[in-house]
Amino acid sequence: MMTMMHVFTCFLFVLMFDTSEQCEASFTATLPGGYNTNNLKPCVQYNQVLCPDDGYNSTTGVFTAEINGTYIVSVTMMTGLVAGHTNLWKNDELYVWLYTGNQYDMATQVVCMDLVEGDRIWVIMANAASYTLFDVYNTFSAVLVPSE
Ligand SMILES: *[C@@H]1O[C@H](CO)[C@@H](O)[C@H](O)[C@H]1NC(C)=O
Ligand SMILES: *[C@@H]1O[C@H](CO)[C@@H](O)[C@H](O)[C@H]1NC(C)=O
Q1: Where would you find this protein in the cell (predicted)?
Q2: Considering only CA atoms, which residue is closest to atom 5 of ligand 1?
Q3: How far is the CA of 68 from the centre of ligand 2 (A)?
Q4: Does the model's pTM come out above 0.90?
Q5: Domain containing 6 — which CATH number?
């Protein structure tokens, strides 16, 4: 009986987590196929939204936090046959650098970030080394870490 109760409780727990899995204050977006060159300024416009959120504007590529909290933010890049840098920015602060070489290399940074309502994050091409990002291998995501 206790075991059944436990199983049932776990099941409910899973169900509850399932309903909260609808990208609440979280998003993922990627780029269209091929070489992207025209959608990288002033910041990268990841316009293929896989997991939408009201805070993420796919026209500008900027995520604006609507809920205070700690977020896991991830950027993955591939430049293709040229080397290149990107930067993740939080408001006026350069948060982290990414770099990939010219052999279809990929780079990822997964970082923790405290955001309050109105804080903005985005990704730019840096160092003017090259202005291309290759294909769907580029993603930008943020996930609000549940505080309870
Ligand atoms: C996204 O940003 C563009 C450019 O600033 C703006 O025109 C548009 O209304 C914004 N979209 C949303 C859903 O806020
Ligand atoms: C979010 O954080 C800001 C800055 O610390 C604070 O002024 C605001 O009251 C907070 N909002 C909520 C809903 O807790």
Answers
A1: Secreted
A2: 60
A3: 6
A4: no
A5: 2.60.120.40
